[in-house]
Structure formats: C-alpha cells, structure tokens
Amino acid sequence: MKAIIPGLLFFLIVLSGLIEAPDYNSGFESVNETKTLPTGWSFQAPNYSNIKLDSVTKYEGKYSLSIENSIDFNTPQEVGNYFNIEEVGTSSKDGDSIELRGFMKMDEVRGGYAAIWLRVDGVDELGELVDKKYDGTHDWDEYSVKLPYTKKIKNIAYGGILDGVGKVWFDNFQIYKDGKPLNSLRRIPPKKAQLDTSYRTGSRIKNVTINAKNITNLAIAGQVWGFLKYHHPYAGSGDVNWDAELFKILAKTLKCKNVTELSDSLEVYLDSLPKVKECDDCKIPPTPNVLLSPDYGDLFTGKIITKSLTNKLRYIQQNKSSKQNYWVKKEPSLGYPQFVNEKSYDEMVFPDTGYRLLALFRYWSIINYYSPYRNITEYDWNQALKNFIPQFLAAKEAKEYTLTTLRLIATIKDTHANISNYNPILESIKGKYRVPFRADFVEDQLIVSGFRSDTLNIQNKVKIGDIIVSINGVSIEKLVKKYLPITSASNYETQLRDLPWNYLMRSNDDELQFVLKRNGRVIKLNIQMLKGKSHYLDPEYKDKEAYHLIGHKIGYVNAGKYQNSESPEMKKMFAKTKGIIVDLREYPSDFMFFTFAKYIKSSKSLFVKLSTVDYLNPGTFVITDSTYNGSDKVGDSYNGKVIVIVNSDTQSRGEFTTMALQSSPNVSVIGSQTAGADGEVTAIVLPGGILTMISSRGTFYPDNSPTQGVGVKIDVVVKPTIQGIINKKDELLEKAVNILNSPVN
Fold first, then answer.
1. CA–CA gap between residue 616 and residue 606 (Å, rounded)
2. How far is residue 323's CA from residue 124's CA, in Å, rounded to a whole number?
3. DSSP-derived secondary structure for 58-113
4. CA nearest 430: which of 535, 532, 331?
5. Cβ-based neighbour number of residue 429 at 10 Å
6. Closest Cα to residue 294, out of 622, 656, 621?
7. Which of 426, 351, 358 is nearest to 395 (CA)?
8. What is the model's pTM?
9. Which end of the chain is less enclosed by CB atoms within 10 A, N or C?
10. What are the distances in angstroms from CA 720 to CA 189, 402, 410, 440, 741?
11. Could you tell me which of 678, 685, 657, 480 has the C-alpha nearest to residue 557?
C-alpha cells in the first residue's frame, strides 16, 4: 500500500549534469565522465548507488538505466526528467492529451512495484500525476501513461520508480502530445538545496558542553528550525539547503548565554529570510473533523522565548505557504506524507556533532508535525527532545550514535518503527551468531519453543518447554530490562515477541552458557551458536492449506495463504458449515477487507475511520476517510458464526483485516494483544544511512478508538500455555473450535 509522489519543483535530487541535449537524453545515451549515470536526469534516492547505467541489458542504443533494491535496503528509488513547456503550438486546446511512452524490463520485483510516471503542473500549482505499476519478472516491453492537456500546464516531468525489492531497467522514454512527439521542452534547473555541498564533509559544530543552558537553547533552536521547515515558504521551497541552515543556526545558538540572547539571535535570523506574504485563505479545519491538534513545543507558551520572536513566529504560522513543500509530499492515492527529499549522508558512519543533532531535530520535527500518533509516544514529545539532546551530544562513536537513534525511535511506541535497513553497526551489537533453537515468552517465561530442521541434534540437550533462567550468568529479567529501551514496538506484548529473535538469542560469542529449568530441575548447558542468518523450521512442519474443513461443519482459513481468487471454491466447500475460523496469526497474503467481509457480512456498515495530516496546517490531523464494507444484497452472505484468531504476530494489514471482519455481528475475535501498528507506512532517512519507518495514517474504529498501541478489540482473551506448547497443542485454534461447537452456536 505504499506509493510515492514525484514533486516536479521540489525534489531531493542528485544531478549528474545539466547538459542540454536535443533529444533530452530520453534514452540515457549521454553520460557523465565516469559513465555511471546519464546527464540531465535527476535521482531521488537515499542510496543512489543502486541506480546505474547498464551497457549489457538494454532495449536499444548503448545504455539503459537500472534501479535495484534489496531486502536489506528497501526504500523507493526514483529517476526523473524535468522540463518547462515553452510552447505547444497554436492549435493546442483543452481536451488534448500528453502521453509518456517508455520501455521497462523487470526481474523479480515484489513487495511493491516498478512503474513509469508522468506529471504535469501549472506555474504555481500542483497538477496531475499518473503512473502504472507492475511487479514480477517481465522482458522488455513498451508501457505508456497519459494525462489530459490544459492550457494552464507549464511544466512536465516524467521518469521511472522502483518501490519494492528486485530490479528494473528503463530505456527510451518519449513524450507525445496528441500522438506527435513534443519537442518544445526546456530543462528546469536544479534547486539550490540539491546543489549546495558547503557542509557535505562536516557541520563545523563540535565541543558542545552538556549543561542546562545549552540543552534549553538547543531545544528551542531545533523547534524553530523544524517549525520553519514546514511553515516558512522559503524553507519549504527547495531554494535553500535547510540542513545547512541548521548548522548556521547552531553555531550562533551555542554563543548565546541565555534564552533572551537566543531569542534575539533567532529573530535576526528570521528577519534575514524572505518576508512572508500575508495569506487571505489560510484556514484552520473545522473542529469536529480534528482528531489531533498541533503542538508547537515552547514556541507559543510565552514562558521561554521573547514576545517579539513569538509574534513573528505566530505571523508565519498564520500565513503559512499553501504551495507544495519541498520536504514532504502527499501520497497521491491515500494522502499520507512521504519524506522524499531528505539526505541520508550514507558516507558518515559516525556523524559529527552537528549531524547528530540534525538526526534528532529532523526526526523530532517529522513526528511532531506528521505523525498521527504523536500523542501516544512514551512520554511528552517536547520533553523527549530535551531528553535526547545530551544523549546525541554524548555519543563518542558509531555504536553509541546508533543505539541513541534506536532509543529515540523506540520512544514513539510504533511497531512499524525500527532501523529497517541492514545496519552493520546494529548487527554487530546484536551479534553474528544465533542460538540453534527457537525461544518465545509464554506465561511470562522465556521457553524453548521450537527447533531448526538442520540442527536436530540440539534436541538431545534442550527440550520444548524448557524454561530459560539465565544466559551467560545474566538473568532473563535483567536482559529484558537491558534491551527493552532499544526494542521498538507499540506495546509490551510485541516487545516480548521481538526480544528473543533480535537480542536474547544472539551473541558475538560462539558459545553461550544457559541455565534451564525442566520439571523443577536446574540444568546448565553450553550451547554452540550458529553463524549467519537463520530461520526456524519445525521438523514436523507441514505446509498449511489456504483453507480446509475441520471435521465436516467448520471451515478454516489461513490468511497467510488465502488468495481472493480462491473465494468461489472456498464458498462451495464451506456451504454446509456452521462456522468459519479465520486465522490471522500470519500476515495476510491478500486484501480481504472488502472481498471476504462481503462474504460473511450481511449488510454494509462503517468499519474504519482514517486520519491524515492537514498539509496546510502541519501537526493537525483530520478524519479524511470513512470506509464501509459488507454485502450489497440482503441474504447473500454467510449465515454461520465466524471466529477470528489473533496474537502479537497480527500486525498492520492483519489488524486492518481484523477490524474489517469484526464489524460484522456474527464475528468474534479471540486471542491476545496484537502488534498495535495499523495503517500505511512512510520511510524516514537519517544521517549515517539509517532508514526507519513510521505509521503515517491514523486508523480508528467507528467510535474513534485507536488500534495503534493497544491493538484490535478482542472478545475472548486466549493465550498459549507452556504445557500446551510441550504437548504441541494449538490452544487458540482449539478454543475457536470449542466455541463453534458449543450448544449456543
């Protein structure tokens, strides 16, 4: 459910050159000196080394352009060509069309899509964007997208994107107007934010003393910088490198002896920016639609900064720019924010003091103005800023910086949030070896819960249900306390889900000493570790069917396997059943929100409300969608009882699917607390090449109660037991069957 909007005028791009070419280099034949990138094209990519010219795999000519994403670094990568339309001929009129044609080849594109895209814009207004999305493996073929032409169109952009894992090649793009080549194009020059490299090698901020004065002053400076980034038209225009502006602000901030001097300094800086014009149509959304109002930290409290500075900031807030902000784009289909123009500074393994503060202030500002769940962070978000300033300042090497960043991410209490890309520093912290068995928390105890099919000899030492008391002499309680602050999740249940895999069962030692309890006996064992990535596979595991019968009267659906295309055959199999069990303990492989709900729900009703940021009032979140599902015809749905099974593995699409199904009166949900991370996901890049994510669209029940943090609503709480694990029972499934077999059903 991810997408990204290419901003025509406001776009983080790394330009390989601006050589004017008669054919606009639409086939990538003009290249830079190193023959690695085409001239004139722009690249939006935190890790643009994944974008390359290819002289072997091509449709025609000497080169194609390829984009490749791996599981370890999967974030949207995009190429674009940007032009003004100088003239389109005297015969041009509304009703004509502009068309992009281009060739594309794909290799195992999955978890997203590859696409060509076309965008047209007016001089000072956003126009229309169209793209065509594909996945899988396909040989070279021509694709096209088309938009209507109007006389207001002055700018045009086109290109290709990979948003997912795999590889795609592009070649021979051509623009047509009413079927004829459009040649009256002039390249748009790059934005200054793209070209400014004055601070690329360092921020020039160092030796910052950690004391109360500096923490207060830096917090105010960070709040002002973030506020201006998303409210001041100059800061959001792309005509200035706003990262570099932070370093200029910090240099002056650190010279201020108190907040009065700081206020004066910030006011002088504010006055140096282009004046903000008075806005006649800046509107605040009606109160009934607002779910979350903005919080500007200390800027308008009247307690810290001077009244004069407050008034100037208030003027900017009341007359904010209505133009597209360079740093944040509205996803065209679902409306959630995309932070497409931020630089990741991959080359900085250990960012210097200024860049570490940039990481903090960038992340804090994004959460403050664009997270629909800013109000449910671990503690007050303004206080979080002040808490983390000394931690980011104190980091002495890459490991400390990475852990501090991870602690910051964990404070937003979002299971979607983590360090999402392969990070060598974090991997070295977790450890290169893994324990050769699976462990999970059951009944508040860490137990051995499974084996790998290729390490069966471990069964001679440990048994399913063994309670792990300590590892290398450290109790499990102390290990949990140690790793919880860097285990990002929406709730404690999900933290416990992730702790064994991420930390407890990993080490840089090739052997660990375990103390176990088995039937009341204490057992000490030295366990040899496994090197490299590994996945647990029960030696008795049998691949589950998408759906089957339990006995003759109960249908079972495994959401992790089920496809909507299987619905007709499934309905035939379940026609005479008295109940259906829908197992959502695996991530759903298809979108069941409407199709399956239509099958089991007798009439249409509201099942979810969705909120997105008001882009004209950052920090304000409003209800933008109310979504209905269910059968269109009375008597056309399933008449039996439906049980939905959930646990902490039920996350995101799984939780959304649960909400969709439980809106039907014949559905009950059993199990335990879910992951509490619902809705669309947006990527954020931070200095040092750190990639993280946030839940960026609010998801709520019809009564406005959230799923974020707390998970979905559960009718009957059921959890596995240690004895059940030992006896290889699926106690949640057994409970579902018992409910359906009980006389009341």
1. 28
2. 7
3. -SSSS-EEEEEE-SSS---EEEEEEEEE----TT--TT-EEEEEEEEEEEEEEEEE
4. 532
5. 17
6. 621
7. 351
8. 0.85
9. C
10. 61, 35, 27, 11, 20
11. 657
Per the DSSP assignment, residues forming a β-bridge with 438 are 450
What whole-number distance in Å separates Cα of residue 35 and Cα of residue 52? 9
Separation between Cα atoms, residue 522 and residue 405, nearest integer Å? 39
> What does the alpha-carbon distance between residue 516 and residue 439 come to, in Å, rounded to a whole number?
12
- Report pLDDT for 532: 62
Residue whose structure tokens are 């000196």: 33
Sign, Cα dihedral of 703, 707, 708, 709: positive
Strand stretches in 349-444, DSSP E: 433-434, 437-442
The Cα-based distances of 57 to 30, 34, 107 in angstroms read 17, 19, 12
Q: Which of 661, 654, 702, 662 is nearest to 678 (CA)?
A: 654
Helical (H) or strand (E) element with 684: strand 681-686
**Residues 675-694: pLDDT tens digits?**
999 888 998 999 998 999 99
Residue the block writes with tokens 């069964």: 459
Is the Cβ–Cβ distance between 326 and 236 less than 8 Å? Answer: yes
The pLDDT, as a whole number, for residue 30 is 86
Residue 456 main-chain phi, psi, to 5 deg: -70, -20
Report mean pLDDT in 10-residue bins for the chain, 745 residues: 34 32 69 79 68 92 90 67 59 69 93 86 56 88 88 82 90 88 74 86 95 97 98 95 98 96 97 91 72 95 96 93 86 85 90 98 98 95 98 98 98 95 90 93 97 79 96 98 97 97 95 96 94 63 86 96 96 96 95 95 94 94 92 85 98 96 97 94 92 94 96 98 96 98 80
